[in-house]
Amino acid sequence: MAAAVNTLSPRLQGVTTLKTLYPHLSATILHPGPPWANQPLNSAQSRALAALWHYEQRIGNPVNLSDREIEALAQQMTWAPTGIYHVTSPLIGFVSESMALWVVDDPTTGLRGYAPIHEGSGPTLRFGTPGPITLALQYWLTERFQPLMNTLLPDGIPLWPIVRTALLMGDDLHMRAQAASWLLAEEIYRRLAVSSLWHELTERDHQFLTRTIWTNPGAFLSIGMAMTEIYFQWWETHAPADFIIDFGANGREWGYRTAGSPTQWVTRLAPRPSCPNRHPLPISGDSFGLEIMGFGGRILPNAPALWEQLGPERPQAFIPDDYEPAMRESPIRLPHMPFELGTRLTELSRLNMVTGCLDAHDGFLGPGMVTWED
After folding, report:
1. Is 321 helix (H, G, I), strand (E, B) or coil?
2. Would you state the CATH architecture of domain 11-221?
3. Where does the chain hold its CATH 3.90.1700.10 domain(s)?
4. Residue 60 and residue 55: Cα distance in Å, rounded?
5. Predicted confidence (pLDDT) per residue in 131-170, tens digit
6. Spatial contact of 299 and 320, defined as CB atoms under 8 Å apart
7. What residues contact residue 57 under an 8 Å CB cut-off, 6+ apart?
8. Ranges in the chain annotated CATH 3.90.1710.10
């Protein structure tokens, strides 16, 4: 819907926590995708849950827990889908009360979306590594980074200028968000350098800012996801009934909600993505919202850095048949970037969606592809 581009002006507004937004969720874990009921966790999810609960100081060192003990712990949890609370989370992506979340808002409508802060490269809490550095980073995000960003961003950072420029630089904003992350880092650095806060930064501040912002090629991913959440909320009341307003996977199922049935999930068994010479776990995460928004697979022909990993050919399935001829040639390099946001149900099965591949033992494997089966 082109009207959404003109109506909404999403901006990065700051950082908060889940318990600040929703104090009643103190014992709840948010998970991506559709709701589940006593769902068995796969090995990657089990490690992530144990690490997260250790971070929340609810259990001791999870290294000593068996898979059966973690599964019993999971059965005692209160779980809720992220989308109910306008939170969106990437691959695996469990969210607990103390986690720092980016805040993206639209100043005109007051709509807000939230997403966990990308931890950068190396061991991460999201993938189940509760080591000293991982935990120290999480505590730093709430104790130091949150007040720092909230001071630096009183008027927010407009996101569409970053998005448009990043697309022209070859990002697809899903599996490749390197340009957007660099543009974000440049803007934050500029604001920080001219403020008095720069002289108050400690060595630890510089260390973690380098990991999460300055040198993190995925820093913008979760911000882009929080931006999609704003559009999903707007489409719920302004879009045609068959417009998709939520899309995600929980490791066992994936599915969507539409503007016409905003409380009803339509689900399928979660597929294993095609990942060359690998056998990844079934998909899990809310980042498919970026694909529904119009990024990812639809933009991939203009993000050539990914083709070495995904293959040498450009599948025509990435390009919907009803695009204008010029859009089929280059969907983002035309004047004023005529970019169609959103996905209707009739388009869903024609999308090849890019996703991350995750192995039970080796962690993140790289990009893969999935398609929705009607």
Report:
1. coil
2. Alpha-Beta Complex (3.90)
3. 244-370
4. 9
5. 788 889 999 999 999 999 999 999 999 999 999 888 888 8
6. no
7. none
8. 11-221
What backbone torsions phi and psi does residue 80 show, to the nearest 5 degrees?
A: -150, 145
Tell me if residue 224 falls in helix, strand or coil: helix
Residue 196: CB atoms within 10 A of its CB come to 7
Interatomic CA distance for residues 103 and 17, integer angstroms? 9
Q: Which residues pair with 44 in a beta bridge?
A: none
Residue at token pair 């409380």 = 263
pLDDT digits (tens, 9 = 90+) for 255-297: 999 999 999 999 999 999 987 667 888 999 999 999 999 898 7
Nearest CA to 44 out of 123, 128, 121 is that of 128
User: CB of 273 within 8 A of CB of 287?
Assistant: no
CATH topology of domain 244-370: v583 fold (3.90.1700)
pLDDT of residue 324: 40
Question: What pLDDT score does 305 carry?
Answer: 59
Cross-strand pairs, 17:
100
SS3 367: strand
Q: Is 43 left (phi over 0), alpha (psi -120 to 50) or beta?
A: alpha
Q: What residues have CB less than 8 Å from 70, skipping those under 6 apart?
A: 41, 46, 49, 50, 62
Angstrom distances, CA of residue 187 to CA of 157, 181, 190, 294: 8, 10, 5, 25
CB 121, CB 156: distance < 8 Å = no
**Residue 102 near residue 112, CB atoms below 8 Å:** no
DSSP collapsed to 3 states, 248-290:
EEECCEEEEEECCCCCCCEEEECCCCECCCCCCCCCEECCHHH
Encoded tokens for 308: 């070495």
State the Cα–Cα distance between residues 85 and 95, nearest whole angstrom: 11
- Do the Cβ atoms of 285 and 253 come closer than 8 Å? no
